[in-house]
Structure formats: C-alpha cells, structure tokens
Amino acid sequence: MSELQVLPLGDAALTVVFGDRIEAEIHARVKHFCAALEAGPRPDAIEEWAPAFASATVWYDPEKISFAALAAIMRDLAAGAAPDEKPGALFEIPFCRDAEFAPDLAETAALKKLTPERFIKEFSSLTFEVYMLGFQPGFAYLGGLPESLSAPRLATPRKKVAARSLAVADGMCAAYPFASPGGWRLIGRTPAPLFDARNPARPALLAPGDRVRWREIDRAAYDRLETQWRFGDFDAQCLVRAS
Q1: Alpha-carbon span 57 to 67, nearest angstrom
Q2: Closest CA to 50 of 97, 7, 14
Q3: In the β-sheet with 46-51, what is the strand arrangement from edge to edge?
Q4: pTM recorded for the entire structure
Q5: Which of 71, 87, 108, 63 is nearest to 209 (CA)?
Q6: Are 192 and 43 in contact (CB under 8 A)?
Q7: What's 129's DSSP letter?
Q8: 116-138 per-position pLDDT tens digit
Q9: Which SS3 state, helix, strand or coil, does residue 138 take?
Q10: Which of 48, 79, 110 is the last residue of a domain?
C-alpha cells in the first residue's frame, strides 16, 4: 500500500495523495476518504473537495485553520475505517457506432484481434465507474475498461473531436462534452447532453462515483434523440437505471 502524503496546493488548498497509479484499490481509498468527509464531522474551515484518480484535493479557509493542523486531521481521517458509502447513480447512456462517429473502431478492434461487432458487444456489456471529472467541464474519466479492449492513444491527436464523441484509451473510457482537440480513439457518439449550463444544480451529467453502461442504438434512433434533446427536451433521469 502506498504511503499517504498530504501536500500543500497554494495557500488555501491541500492534496491528499494515496498513490501514483490508476488502479481500483487506490481509487477505493480516495472514495472512502471523500465519503468520510461527506459523512462528517469535519472542520468548518473546509469549503469543498474533489476526488481524482489517486488523490483528493480539499479547499479550506486559511484564516480559520492552518495547513499543518488540517493536514493532521486529513491524515487521521484517511487512516480511519471506511464509512458506509452511498452508491452513485447508474446511467444507461445510448451511443451510435455509425462510421461517421467511429473512425477508430475498426483499427482499435483489429489491435485486439476482434471484429468491430465483437468489440462493441463486449464494450456494451461493461459497467464503468466515474473516477473523476477533468479536461473539460463534464468530461468524466470512466474506469473499468479491460486490457482486452484497451489501446494506446493515437500517435497524432486530432485537432478537433466532435462534441459527445465516445472514446477509449489506456484503460479508460470517456465522452467529450464539447468539441476539442483529442487523442483518444473514437468508437461512437452519444446524443445525450454531457454538460447542460441550463441546469445550475447539476450541469454535468455524470459525477464521481456514478456508474455507466453504454447502450448501442442505430443512426435513426440517434438522430431522433439528438434532435429531441438538443432543443431542451432532456431530463437526465431518463438515463438513470435501478442498480
């Protein structure tokens, strides 16, 4: 087990580091720590916190508590017994692997000695977990892609990846909320809005701890849903499933 570190991040934040790798055991420690913060009690100087792959950052008011004092509390909290965790929501998100949306599917499947159809079938049978948000607002890094479906990032990133593109790389899965450069391998596209500024309570569709299953749909269904949801007729609850 990696030795825990508590590092300053400017004068009003600290980072609790549990390891230096992306793996389920280390991320479980991150989740337990954040669950303990949520459960409380915690110093009222703490303002917010956010998990990452192998660490968690805590923002605090330095006029109410010193870094040294808070670091000691965070070490004790991280060393304590894991509290009961509230499971995140389970989302079933549609995607389409039309050739226009999945330019890397055939090559990625061939690297794993699979047909595109077999690759998608195995991919759609998985349940992913949201490890963290980053890169873009609402960009969720999903852990749980096995080596049998994983491939390295593209040698030359694309200058523009279309919004809502579904991609895999390096043991992870993600969908781009907005158009941007990107080097992940594109295997489909979802019609679902991944970030909605019109929903201030929860603009990002996914949050750390949520789980995701990807459900394949055809192009006709994609076009229908994309049109419907683009014009505001979208309720994220329609994608939430019972565990």
Answers
A1: 13
A2: 14
A3: 5-8, 13-17, 55-60, 46-51
A4: 0.86
A5: 87
A6: no
A7: E
A8: 999 999 999 999 999 999 999 99
A9: coil
A10: 79
